[in-house]
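Sat 14:20. Reprocessing the chain from the morning session after the first attempt stalled halfway. Input below, unchanged.
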Amino acid sequence: MTEPSNVAERPRYRLPAFAEHIGIQMVSADPQRVVGRIVLGPQHSNGRDRVHGGAIMALADTLGAIGTVLNLPKGSTTAPNCVVSASWNRAAALDRARHA
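Finished this time. Tokens:
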């Protein structure tokens, strides 16, 4: 039995267990744009009531990986390699969710 043509294709990605563990949530994802958020709590603190840079980088890395997977040719089993770097001017407060 085949699915009707109006049934949306299932996502070609899954949120990694680590991303779920630290509170990352997907808002929307398609090959042109990936939007997610992390609901911040005290576990994301750098010890000074600011967001730890590792939490922000985990969000960026997760969304970048999902964007990459969504743009791979069907049937592909490899992905490009990239290097991510960040410089911080001011840490974000822990009092609300951040979107990327």
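The two ends are 39 Å apart (CA to CA).
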